[in-house]
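Quick check before the chapter quiz. The format below is the same one you will see on the exam, so make sure you can read both the input and the output lines.
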Amino acid sequence: VPFTWTFSLLVPWATMNGVLLVVYYLWDSVAYKKEPKEALKFDREHIEPLQITGQINFLWLAGIIASVAFLNANYIEAVAKNHWLGFIREVAMLALVGISVWSTPKGLRTANKFTMHPITEVAFLFIGIFITMIPALILLETHGKDLGLSQAWHYFWATGVLSSFLDNAPTYVTFFTTATGLNLDQARLLAGQAAPEALMWVGDNLINERVLTAISLGAVFMGANTYIGNGPNFMVKAVAEEAGIKMPSFFGYMAYSVLILLPLFVLVTFIFI
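Here is the expected output.
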């Protein structure tokens, strides 16, 4: 999918994040007022202005995002024709990582107590996930059309539930493959109309745009349902625990996600899917 198409998802993205920010603010405000008076007094007497050091890394981060977005066959014809050029994205990203290490004073990472332990822990976990989910994804690709997915919102929830426990990228690809396997009449029917505008070409595949939207939102939004749905979820947990902060258990985290996120997913279903 062309990177620029994802900007069409800006409104549901902003809606979801806007509601969550309000929930977090209210929750944090209530929790803060329950702090002991001594702790609140200490906070007032030891205010430190918020500041960011190592700002040059924002430039390298922008380079990482640009590499992911544009160094691919959708935007570079040579990549589509030459298999070996397919690795140009990874080479560029590794180069930017090296530049970041070289350009950032070592003292900043020492002050942040930076270690490779959290990313190593996440890497081992997701290697295991990727290996064990291969049979499930093959089964879906083979029998996906037999699942009875007849509405766009079916794809939203089916993709989302799987993304909650598997990585969202292969889950997205699996249901994308299922959706592109529909014939033209099925795809138009799924859109609720026979208008050709309801369909779009993605490479050599024809797909219903409403279904593509549903798959995209389900894969990304519902990855937040568990620690393992998205790599960053587990990394935040690992970083926090390494800093000595007690984190909820796997199912303890899901108690929060079910109570807060599921009602929002229902809202997204009715408004955007």
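If your answer matched, good. The two ends are 19 Å apart (CA to CA).
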